Amino acid sequence: MARIELNRLAHAYMPNPQSRADFALKEFDLTWDDGGAYALLGPSGCGKTTLLNIISGLLAPSHGRVLFDGHEVTGLPPEARNIAQVFQFPVIYDSMTVYDNLAFPLRNRKVPAAEIDRRVHEMAEMLEMTRELKRKAKGLTADAKQKISLGRGLVRDSVNAILFDEPLTVIDPHLKWQLRSQLKHLHKRFAHTMIYVTHDQTEALTFADKVVVMYEGEVVQVGTPDELFHRPAHTFVGYFIGSPGMNVLPCAVNGASARVGEHEIALRGGYEPPPAGSKIELGVRPEFVRLGREDGVPVSVERVDDIGRYRIVKAKLDGIPFSALMPEGAEIPADDARVRFDASAVNLYVDDHLWP
Ligand SMILES: Nc1ncnc2c1ncn2[C@@H]1O[C@H](COP(=O)(O)OP(=O)(O)OP(=O)(O)O)[C@@H](O)[C@H]1O
Predict the structure, then answer these.
(1) 215-233: per-residue pLDDT in tens?
(2) Keyword Methyltransferase, does the record have it (predicted)?
């Protein structure tokens, strides 16, 4: 296992990048701790695969350095990096048995036969595939084949890191949960450095101890699921994580309060005035928005969706839309509704970045 450092890393696919927009990855520094379980989360096209390929050595970055445990590997090919990779679609040999598929990465590295046997059986047991070990991979379901791919990625104990690129895409929804918890269990057991690429927040938050969020080629936050929820570092993180995502309302700030439309909203403390001309917004998650009749700022309720234990209320404050999550049984006034934001859960954003 290794600590992976990315040092002033950036990548442009075009030969002479002129502006920031020409970079698929904009410059950043990032360290992945040895033995950490990370998710790399972001929407399609934000640069996740580019970053993963730079770590595995499939792609040489146009700028910056990659270090494993302090040793530079930037120019090294994948086979010299000792990394295991699991892709979206199964990469297995149909004509081989499940056993031989799992044994393949170990035989390749001349691991002694007894050790191979032990590891293959251990892996098969964890993947609940012991009964299939003697079967040919051909004819197995897509789910089973992808389990074998996962097993092949995980079977070596001496890898620097294991990279997963949306590995559960082909897996049946009801099995996804099971495989994700198996992966988490395997991480606890072997403490590999794992990087799990996904655009699905549930997958990221259930698998990872730390989530790296990317947006338009930038790493916008590295944090625990709790940090991403309570202190999104960028409006995109607030919006992308959570269901519904964080409310973002344009405002002006004046010390310990913000003006939204014609109304004053209390903030958690006093803020330095943001630079003139910047875009200022208030961010508050729907979980911390309360509607009632008694006090707060007048709003119009537009729509209520019942989702079981909660109701999602869509409302407007001076024409600015926002959502509230109201618990079962709480009154939602149709007329004369007022809103209160929990001041301790209100964050301030300047040009999309969290204002400290
Ligand atoms: N070989 C390439 N040549 C030129 N541009 C590329 C190449 N591969 C990716 N890109 C561009 O780089 C950007 C990042 O793409 P990348 O595939 O890394 O994103 P992603 O987050 O993995 O997306 P997805 O989830 O859809 O796979 C995109 O704008 C994409 O069009």
Answers:
(1) 999 999 999 999 999 999 9
(2) no
- Average pLDDT taken over every residue of the chain: 93
Residue 320 belongs to a domain with what CATH number?
Answer: 2.40.50.140
What pLDDT score was predicted for residue 271?
A: 86
User: What's the N-to-C CA distance of the chain in angstroms?
Assistant: 35
Residues 249, 209 share a domain: no
Determine which residue's CA is closest to atom 17 belonging to ligand 1. Answer: 49
Cβ–ligand 1 contact at 238 (below 6 Å): no
What are the tens digits of pLDDT across the range 143-198? Answer: 899 999 999 998 988 889 999 999 988 888 888 888 888 888 888 888 889 999 99
Answer whether 347 contacts ligand 1 (Cβ < 6 A).
Answer: no
- Give the CATH number for residue 101: 3.40.50.300
ipTM computed for the complex: 0.97
Which residue, 237, 267, 299, sits at the end of a domain? Answer: 237
